[in-house]
Inverse folding.
């Protein structure tokens, strides 16, 4: 959406456009996770198809942004501009991994449907709370990237602690349900896998947010 080859001769502008492209890519990843979560929760199979189609776009963006940054690295850059390029490459890779996890969530949803695995009302409410927290993390990360806000980047780091606490509470509560025979082992494994995938997504969002400080030093 933003990468223009003719801007490579103006590195400061090209870097700013690259950051905008990373944000565009992250928006696509957010949509993937939203749709994967909806599909896991019972939405129609159109969401699964949409996630897989969008994830292919994310993969393409990873390749295109990385290639653009490699081309940019060959220009006459300041030391600060040169240092920012690997930072952006790492951010791009983080976002691509989020896209991969969204596909994994779709596979979990298909497994749930194929095996007709039921979750308790309590478990489903916990999953909704987890989904909401991940959405908040996406919004804070996008805000941090788009505005170069260190405060919003810090919000993402704070959110990581809330995510860890929520995940642990969910694990503990589900173990209790398993011990009380209120849930089957296959359903429990599925539940744990879902939490684990969301935690990994949260980790990658924190990784992106941590790069905002370096991005803000070089771009506007």
């Amino acid at each position: 959406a933003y990468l223009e080859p003719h801007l490579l001769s103006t590195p400061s502008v090209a870097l700013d456009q690259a950051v905008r492209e990373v944000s565009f890519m992250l928006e696509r990843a957010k949509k993937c996770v939203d749709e994967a979560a909806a599909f896991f929760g019972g939405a129609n199979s159109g969401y699964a198809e949409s996630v897989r189609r969008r994830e292919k776009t994310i993969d393409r963006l990873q390749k295109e942004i990385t290639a653009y940054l490699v081309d940019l690295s060959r220009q006459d850059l300041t030391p600060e501009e040169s240092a920012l390029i690997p930072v952006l490459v790492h951010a791009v890779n983080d976002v691509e991994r989020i896209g991969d996890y969204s596909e994994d969530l779709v596979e979990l949803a298909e497994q749930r449907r194929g095996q007709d695995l039921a979750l308790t009302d309590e478990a489903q409410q916990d999953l909704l709370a987890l989904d909401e927290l991940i959405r908040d993390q996406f919004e804070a990360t996008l805000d941090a990237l788009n505005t170069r806000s260190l405060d919003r980047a810090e919000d993402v780091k704070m959110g990581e602690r809330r995510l860890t606490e929520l995940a642990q509470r969910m694990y503990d509560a589900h173990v209790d349900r398993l011990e009380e025979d209120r849930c089957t082992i296959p359903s429990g494994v599925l539940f744990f896998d879902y939490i684990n995938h969301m935690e990994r997504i949260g980790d990658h969002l924190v990784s992106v947010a941590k790069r905002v400080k370096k991005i803000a030093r070089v771009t506007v």
About this structure: The two ends are 18 Å apart (CA to CA). The chain is about 85% helix and 0% strand.
